[in-house]
Amino acid sequence: MNTFIKSLVVGGLSLACVAASGATVFAQDDTLPVQKPFRVKLGGLFGGGEVKGANGIEIGKIDYRFSAGIAYDFSKTNATSPVLFNIYADYFTGSDDKTINNVKVDSEATTFAIGIGARYLFAPAVGTAGQPYGELGLGYYSTKLDIGSSDDTEGGLGGKIALGYQLSMGLFGEVEYTIVDKFSKGGVDYEPSGIRASIGYRF
Hints:
The chain is 11% helix and 64% strand. By secondary structure, it is mainly beta.
């Protein structure tokens, strides 16, 4: 995804999160305590991951990154289909090695994120033990890229759009698009965005 489109998406997430937070501030009497407010999840981030050097030559492709995340739902609107507001922290890491002109090039990328999110719970179907949801998140994403013996770190605004399904006993699964602006520093470009699949537990 190019930078312009990413900017539009992240801008939309910003407006959505600000509007949701504003709604909470002006409706404090309509909030409820959250049952099982903590969420932890493990999974993988797929796609993206291209590492390019001078003249756009690909020197690596980290197309799978291990992911882990934790979130705390601190507020819940009083509605049949409530919105839960949260703070979250996410971690992604992956590596690749490629031989170019008989020289092995090792690439390793790690991204850490902290942000705020809003999760909308759809009304559950009658007779089911679970509930679908959608989530928007916005935060600060810092990426460290190691190429051989050199490394650089770059950070900026990022976000996520997710769909998931949670069971009443605590298990949940979700698919998410993680949106992070392209890393571009020291003559190297890296694409940290991708599709994330996770399973987790609420407690």
